[in-house]
Amino acid sequence: MNTAGRITGIGQGGHITLAHGGGGTAMRALIDDVFLQAFGNDPAVAQEDQARFPLSRFTAEGDRLAFTTDAFVVEPLEFPGGDIGTLAVCGTVNDLAVGGARPVALSAAFILAEGLELATLRRVVASMAACARAAGVRIVTGDTKVVPRGACDGLFITTTGIGTLPAGCDISIAGGRVGDVVIVNGTLGDHGAAILCARGDLALDTAIESDCAALNGLTQALLDAVPDVRAMRDATRGGVAGVLTELAEASGVTVRIEEDRLPIRPDVAGLCELLGLDPLYLANEGKLVAVVPAEAAERALAAMHAHPLGRNAAVIGTLAEIPASGRRGDVRLVNRLGGQRVVTMPMGEQLPRIC
Amino acid sequence: MNTAGRITGIGQGGHITLAHGGGGTAMRALIDDVFLQAFGNDPAVAQEDQARFPLSRFTAEGDRLAFTTDAFVVEPLEFPGGDIGTLAVCGTVNDLAVGGARPVALSAAFILAEGLELATLRRVVASMAACARAAGVRIVTGDTKVVPRGACDGLFITTTGIGTLPAGCDISIAGGRVGDVVIVNGTLGDHGAAILCARGDLALDTAIESDCAALNGLTQALLDAVPDVRAMRDATRGGVAGVLTELAEASGVTVRIEEDRLPIRPDVAGLCELLGLDPLYLANEGKLVAVVPAEAAERALAAMHAHPLGRNAAVIGTLAEIPASGRRGDVRLVNRLGGQRVVTMPMGEQLPRIC
């Protein structure tokens, strides 16, 4: 947040103008009034172009630094269960968390369209601040650009996160082994379904909310109970199908999923049936796929069930040998009659701008 | 770069489609073919959603971590002297470097418009790779989103950088003291002038190129020669005027600049005269303002002159007491006849989408 301390104020109403991205007094007022206050940054620190940390956050022998970034372009900006700000914070926290890292700090870069309502921006920034606080992470540096009306659709946010990765923690999408079990922490497809309904094209009246949530508390609880988690990934774009096909291929196994065991909300299942969508491919923003050794499955489930974000956790399948007739990277969905179908990697997301 | 190893190929021609941002096979092909190859990332590492570093990069007692982010929305995407990719790498490297940090790694998040030519993306990514190599920094993690035609204008890139900040290095915009001298490393306003001409609205035929460059080699040479640099800042949006007004206010001094000493290319000066622009406010992308104690000025200049990016370095002014009649934060430009005018902080950038 490069700004000096003088607060000139931008008022409560109004809209974003090109000057708010111009590096001058208007931008400084925006940063002081909207960002620094919400994120609780010290203006004297914020006027530097970089955040600085003592490395005492990384004290244990063998600790490593984890580093991840995501751009968020969701449409609409606000939807039941969250907004682009909650997505931006939770998404990046989750990318760190599923690798076993403890999130330390985030940066946030905003691309604003001229004409965006300041009230909208304030709400989104307040969501980011609240999510960050809840996840125990600070937003420490940022940037703001404004593009003319028509050059960008409202508001894009890119968050980047750094975290500490303890020695010996080497969770990898290639870490699954034959015999391991596959667990998800709750109902699938809620985010995708919520966005679909929020777009309003369908004139459907549903109570489906996005599952958007920061998973670092849950992953920590899981790792405390089962230090040898083999693989973990949040199931965002491409859904659980996307994660499982990557896992199957990277780990060199076949993933067998039992359709009966997939936790799906009845209203999400109904929406999928109505529209011919597959909940396995719908995006989630507060769901992870964890692969653990079979003997740790009960411990993993117990740890998840004890956490508010894992109450509906369930074992959904297992990792098996690649059959003689099979291809590396196959995911097989077994239905209640014992029939099987191959779940393929999606070509693209069913809904553009899902996150 | 979250992708698995299978390379399906996207061909040489073609355009970006929504599927390229959907988290499926199309996105994986884009990442494999365009990003990983250019950035030299290991596909096995790239398929994780985070980059991981040993902290052996931060070994000296007291080392800190520096962390900075910037979004780039420049228009046009390509211009004489660079493109949005060179800006994205140099801009973030420079934000680290002017704080005294040594850049270690960058992340890059891309927002692509449906319909963007793949050839354009390939050129931009090649520029990023070349700049990163030249600056000695690696692009280690990333993200790609695609928005429908009309929701974004071509291509936006957000880069985030981490670096090591040695113990005792506390360069700050508030660090200037009365008597210090103000140095710039070369001609002012080249980037702003180049973008203005590249937009083509003026039908001017000039040879002005952007000064876009990574300054970490230069800042390192300067800090080796003058460890007690007081303040340093790259003069991007808002130009040198923006930096000096922030410096004057944060440091509690008056900045006196001598007009005669400002290094300005004759063609940039001519363009400014023609259009009524002030080169002090024009954006730079390879220029920094450094404040050093008066007794270190010669050493600082010698170190800069010996570096290819500092050949035209010049002392342009000094820091003085705030006069009884003055206001905290004044920057005064003294012309060749001894007349003075106050340089105010710009309200906004003269040219939107300059970076």
UniProtKB/TrEMBL annotation, chains A, B:
Domain named PurM-like N-terminal: residues: 58-164
A Pfam short name: AIRS
Gene that encodes it: hypE
Family: Belongs to the HypE family.
GO terms, biological process: protein maturation
Annotated ranges, domain PurM-like C-terminal: 177-320
Taxonomic superkingdom: Bacteria
Lineage: Bacteria, Pseudomonadati, Pseudomonadota, Alphaproteobacteria, Acetobacterales
Name the record gives this protein: Hydrogenase expression/formation protein HypE
